[in-house]
Amino acid sequence: MSRANPSEVAQAGLLALAYRLGWTVAPRLGRDALARLAGLGGAVMWRRQSEPVRTYRSNLTALTGAPVSDELVRAGLDSATYSLLLSLALGGWTRERIVAAVRTEGEDALRAAVAERGAVVALPHSGSWDLAGAWACATGMPVTTVVERFRGPMARRYDEFVRLRVRLGMEIVADDDPAVLRRLIAAARPGRVVCLLADRDLHGHGVSTRWGSGPAAPQLTMPLGPAVVARRSGAALFPMVASGARPMTITLGAEVPARDGREGLVAMTQAVADFFADRLRRRPEDWHVMVAAFGSAERGPAGAPPPTRERSAVG
To answer: Residue 127 is part of which domain span?
Structure first.
């Protein structure tokens, strides 16, 4: 029987302690105090210069198209820590406080589509997606979303975040639910929003998208889920990016029109990627992906295989 690495055990213990403190303390803090605490957390991450931090620098370099400064990486670590603390705090916030913490651009088109035929919102890991979902629920647009099921020492965190999001008004579907796609299509109906994180291909069945123009544009594999759910349900598809902190700005792009065939799904996904790339370059520090994101895809978009399982399209 192999023994657990003492360093990994210690790290898991510290992480568990941090979450316990966060769930208890964060709801009691104002946004200024949350920001100061996030700065401390970001400083700790910066000093460690762990692999995720080095990967994050690489991602920001690819996103912006140029080497990034230490200041930008530090700002990104602070932003990521703040967004996590904000998620932990939301369970103690009133509806009024949630609404006041958000401003929007392009909200009217989304609200009209939700009322008429439902909407699918594709978003990246930017800003606080939990606050975005809480805001939608608090303002009359209930949310259905997918949550990645954590394994190992993080399994308990999955249950905690599910309880939080349900308390905020969201309907949660696990990413490993065999009926995940069917449930999302059923949820994309008038009066409801399906929100899907779309800048990571969790199950390896996505398509390669270009983030920018020209031969040097970085490529990122994205899931087809938002396009599939929107087209099969008849709901409107919108890309969205959250940025900033006090208040957080939710920016919605123009509706992505449905297109036929697999090539249509790829084109719809590329339209989402175009919006992500444009908005994220304006505030790259609010993009929080710390696993390898960009690379030269082995297959072009049209050559990627179709999903072989229902849930493959959403991850």
So the answer is: 6-314
